[in-house]
Amino acid sequence: MINDNIRFARVGNSEASLSEVKHFLEQSNLQLDKQIDLFVVAYNEHDHLIGCAGIYHNIVKCVAIDPNYRGENLTNYLINQIIDYAADRGIFHLFLYTKPENISIFTACSFYPLVVVPNLATLMENTPVGIKHYCQELSTYQHAGKTIGSIVMNANPFTLGHQYLVEFAASHCDWLHVFVVSENSSLFTFQERFKLVQAGTAHLANVSVISSSEYIVSQATFPNYFLKEKADIEHANTGIDLLLFRNYIAPSLNITKRFVGTEPFSPITDKYNQGMKYWLNQYETNSPKIELIEIERKKIRDVAVSATAVRRLLSANRIAEIQELVPTTTWDFIEKNSIEIAERCYENH
Question: Are 40 and 8 in contact (CB under 8 A)?
Answer without folding.
Answer: yes
